[in-house]
Design brief:
Radius of gyration: 18 Å
Bound molecules: adenosine-5'-triphosphate
Helix content: 25-40%
Mean pLDDT: 85
Number of helices: 10
Number of strands: 9
Strand order of the largest sheet: 5-6-7-3-8-9
Oligomer: single chain
Strand content: 15-25%
Low-confidence stretches: 220-232, 236-246
Amino acid sequence: MTLVSVENLSVRYGSNTVLSHVDMAVEPGEIVTIVGPNGSGKTSLLRAIIGATRPSAGHVSLKPGLKIGYVPQKLHVDPTLPISVERFMRLTDRVSGRQCVEALEKAGVPDLLKRQMSQLSGGQFQRVLLARALINQPDLLLLDEATQGLDQRGSASFYQQIEAVRRETGCAILMISHELHVVMSASDRVICLNGHVCCEGSPAVVASAPEYRALFGTGTGGALALYRHEHDHHHDHDANPQEAAE
Ligand SMILES: Nc1ncnc2c1ncn2[C@@H]1O[C@H](COP(=O)(O)OP(=O)(O)OP(=O)(O)O)[C@@H](O)[C@H]1O
């Protein structure tokens, strides 16, 4: 059964429409990546899915009883606050020490339980956030640019961990990423967003779609084009990405 189904979704902040007519779905066990320039509504889409942002039109349906783990884009922990990884993980959920250790194992950092949050490296911190999101054994994991601030090796290894999590737990993953080259290999499906769904499909189909190329250019150099986005392609919400790619 489909985990998340988004139909004709629009999100508006005041008079600013950031998402319009977005249709997308996530099936069990899939890894789906959302790419798109800054401000293209990626975070707004995730927030609409978890119910933190109210759609101005359309709707989001979740499979009944769906458990979601969410790794936010940024989380600031005051470096002067003495808080251990274990305390941090137990702040929001009633979980045992054993469950914390298991979640840290799944996130690839089994030995961090007693460490101070302020002493973790960027990569370790992100793994702890991942562990916290895994603690309730979610059916769907949402990651909002979870590798921000990590170097290329750190983020490649983080995505390998995500694939291992999917293998071991079978949970589906919906993630936002700017690292196109890494994402392309780790994803079953890519959705290219720019206020609307520009194109979507398997990484190979999306990479060769004219809409995607208009946004990101070709090859891995396209990762840079992301930040120098010129949106000059024609908007056609009914375009079939399969046909467009041919
Ligand atoms: N709570 C809010 N109130 C008003 N405007 C908002 C709010 N949240 C986001 N926006 C605006 O909506 C647009 C889309 O923001 P969103 O965070 O969804 O984009 P994004 O694709 O995730 O961007 P980035 O890649 O920079 O993280 C931006 O122009 C942003 O300024």
